[in-house]
Every structure is written in structure tokens, then in C-alpha cells.
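Subject: design request, 403 residues
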């Protein structure tokens, strides 16, 4: 009787649905290329002094590459250059894999690579516990060998790094696995615009006319909403004349409002010229700000940041000031303040425009130049750096803190 009851209970427990969860651990990979120009001028900077790359993001953390032309430690007697990857943001036990590559610039492909991807690690990925934790090589390359090698070309070195941040996630049971189609709302609205069906407002821009739908415009832009439906709306909401904007720019604006993406800009302007693309992005940023389309404004800011050049940076800086683009403004000021750029920028027509339209920016620019000068003094060795060096005898793995 007892045995029968036990068997029944076991059978009942086995009939209950089985739930399953899965833990997945993988690396989120990112890459950065660091060009070190004027190598011969960095020699003599001093043992323990470095030149650093700009910070870059991988796996939600900031990283930077540190190059020590005279070596990192006194015991190496400046015979080696040192190379490290550092955690540049606050972290708590960030686990990662690293790869450092010194590029062979003779196109022979004989790169100097130190990597931990694809090979067995005795104790798993490396753990960095705080901002300034580093991994790298004190004796990365003997200086005499480096200076006579194909890694040095035109007095320049090229370093590539790969960071793989280890991430884990757990997924619970799923009741179904029905594939969900990708949203095509933008395409549907774009087709609606191109068909012309149901259009109830026409815009005249620089002699050209464009038909559109009031509700779509009002949904995407608070300015259009006020203009077409607000208490102070225009008297004639069926035909609107837009001043101070070129027709091609308004056409791109309408395309983005419906499609939520930009058209093929090279096809639009008929050239792949960098300066032409910058000019379009400048006009489009002004239009996006005018109609409070924040996503388009951010896209234009990003494109202008990536396309900064001597002959256009002054007008981009003025535009950033006028349309309250603080990040774009900071990038432009940093670019102009560099000694190798400042004189050339000051000789452009755009700089004359900047002085007339935004004279207050000149004061900010002077401040950037001054701060950059102070930073150069510090980098040249007038400030004592303190490191907590945890490198092993081979000089390979280091965990330390930057102050």
C-alpha cells in the first residue's frame, strides 16, 4: 500500500511541466585604432610618461590605449617601449579579453600581435576592478628594433586594439517562439508620401511645392503641430509658404519625417564630396532644430562630428552655438584649439563668419587653447605620476591605478 502511494506521487511529480532557464556568457567585442604620429618627438618624454588615445566604448565601459615611448619602468632603462589598455570608466570587476596589434605598415602583413582571443586561458578572462586598471606589456618592443622596422613609417606608428568584455545573461522559459516580423512602419508611411493619397497640405519652398499629410507632420514635429492645429495656427493650413530654406533640404526633411531615416545623400547631392556632405548636414541640422525633430538633429550632429575639417569647422562651430548643440560645439572647439589646426582655421572664410556671428565663441576658444597648453606641459613630464604597479616578472599583466 505504501509503495503504491510512493509510486503514484513520483508519477504525479514527473507529469508536472518541466521549466528550463539558460545562462549564456559571451564577449561584447569592440575595436580601436590609435595612430601615433611624430614618434621621434615623443622620445625623451621620460620613463613612465605616456601618450594616450582618445577614449572609446566597448561593452558599456570606456577604454584607452597608453603608449610609453621611454618605457614604463626604470628597470627597463628605456630599452623598450611599453603598451597598455586601460579601463577609463568606473568599473566593478570588469572581465575582459584583450588584443594588441602593432601594424606592419609595409603591407607585408607581418603584424606584431599579442592576443588572448581563441586560446585557452589558465584562469579565465582578466579582471579589472577600478578606473585605471591596466593590461599590457612593459617590454612590448625593443626600441632599437622598432626604429629600424617596418612598423615605423613616416615617423608614425599604428596600433590596433581589440577588447572583449565578458557579459552573462539568463533567459527563462518561453511559452512560444513565434517569429515577429521587423517593423516596416517607416516604409509604409514613406509609400504614403510618395503616392500622394490623402495629402491635405501643400508647402511652397524656394519655388517648389511639396504635398504632405497634416496629421503625420503634427505627430512628428511639435512645431508643425502648433502651426497646423494649435490655437495660433496659420490662417491658411492648406497652403504654407516656408521662407529661408532650400527646396532640397525640405525634401530631405519630409523624407525623414515619414521614413524615420535619411535618403541616399550621395545620390541626392550628386557627389561624394566631403565638403558638400558637410554643407547639407549643416543646413539639415538647422531645419531639424527649426521644427524640433530631435532625432534628425542628433543624426546631423553626429555626421558633422565625424566630418570635421579645416575648411568647414568654423561654420560648424557657429552653427552648433546658434542651435544649442553642446557636444558638437565641444568637439569643434577641441579641434580648432589644436596647434596644428588653429592657424589654418583662422585663415578660412568660415572663421571670419564665426567672428562676426558668434564673437563670444572667441573667448571660449582662447580658454580651450590655454587648457590645451597646460595639458601639454603636464604630459611632457612636469607633473609626477604615481602608479600602483602589479606587473609580474615577465612584465606582461599589470593592474594599476592612474591618478
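Subject: RE: design request

Done. Sequence follows.
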Amino acid at each position: 500500500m505504501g509503495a503504491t502511494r510512493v509510486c503514484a506521487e513520483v508519477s504525479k511529480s514527473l507529469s508536472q511541466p518541466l521549466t528550463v532557464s539558460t545562462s549564456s556568457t559571451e564577449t561584447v567585442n569592440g575595436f580601436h585604432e590609435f595612430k601615433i604620429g611624430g614618434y621621434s618627438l615623443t622620445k625623451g618624454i621620460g620613463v613612465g610618461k605616456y601618450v594616450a588615445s582618445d577614449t572609446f566604448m566597448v561593452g558599456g565601459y570606456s577604454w584607452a590605449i597608453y603608449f610609453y615611448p621611454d618605457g614604463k619602468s626604470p628597470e627597463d632603462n628605456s630599452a623598450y617601449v611599453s603598451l597598455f589598455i586601460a579601463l577609463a570608466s568606473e568599473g566593478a570587476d570588469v572581465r575582459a579579453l584583450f588584443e594588441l596589434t602593432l601594424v606592419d605598415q609595409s603591407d607585408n602583413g607581418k603584424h606584431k600581435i599579442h592576443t588572448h582571443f581563441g586560446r585557452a586561458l589558465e584562469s579565465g578572462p582578466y579582471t579589472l576592478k577600478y578606473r585605471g586598471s591596466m593590461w599590457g606589456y612593459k617590454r612590448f618592443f625593443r626600441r632599437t628594433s622598432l626604429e629600424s622596422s617596418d612598423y615605423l613609417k613616416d615617423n608614425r606608428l599604428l596600433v590596433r586594439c581589440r577588447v572583449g568584455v565578458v557579459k552573462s545573461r539568463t533567459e527563462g522559459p518561453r511559452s512560444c517562439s513565434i517569429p515577429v516580423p521587423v517593423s516596416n512602419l517607416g516604409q509604409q508611411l514613406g509609400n504614403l508620401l510618395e503616392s500622394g493619397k490623402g495629402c491635405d497640405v501643400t508647402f511652397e519652398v524656394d519655388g517648389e511645392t511639396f504635398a504632405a499629410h497634416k496629421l503625420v507632420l503634427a505627430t512628428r514635429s511639435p512645431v508643425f503641430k502648433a502651426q497646423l492645429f494649435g490655437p495660433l495656427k496659420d490662417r491658411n493650413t492648406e497652403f504654407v509658404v516656408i521662407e529661408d530654406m532650400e527646396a532640397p533640404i525640405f525634401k530631405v526633411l519630409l523624407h525623414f519625417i515619414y521614413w524615420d531615416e535619411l535618403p541616399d545623400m550621395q545620390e541626392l547631392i550628386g557627389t561624394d564630396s566631403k565638403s558638400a556632405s558637410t554643407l547639407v548636414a549643416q543646413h539639415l541640422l538647422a531645419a531639424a532644430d527649426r521644427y524640433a525633430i530631435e532625432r534628425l538633429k542628433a543624426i546631423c550632429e553626429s555626421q558633422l562630428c565625424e566630418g570635421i575639417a579645416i575648411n568647414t569647422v568654423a561654420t560648424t562651430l557657429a552653427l552648433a552655438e546658434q542651435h544649442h548643440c553642446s557636444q558638437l560645439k565641444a568637439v569643434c572647439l577641441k579641434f580648432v584649439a589644436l596647434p596644428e589646426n588653429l592657424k589654418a582655421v583662422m585663415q578660412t572664410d568660415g572663421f571670419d563668419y564665426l567672428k562676426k556671428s558668434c564673437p563670444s565663441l572667441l573667448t571660449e576658444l582662447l580658454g580651450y587653447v590655454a587648457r590645451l597648453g597646460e595639458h601639454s606641459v603636464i604630459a611632457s613630464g612636469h607633473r609626477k605620476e604615481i602608479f600602483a604597479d602589479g606587473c609580474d616578472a615577465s612584465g606582461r599583466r599589470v593592474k594599476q591605478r592612474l591618478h
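Residues 185-307 form a domain with the Potassium Channel Kv1.1; Chain A fold (CATH 3.30.710.10).
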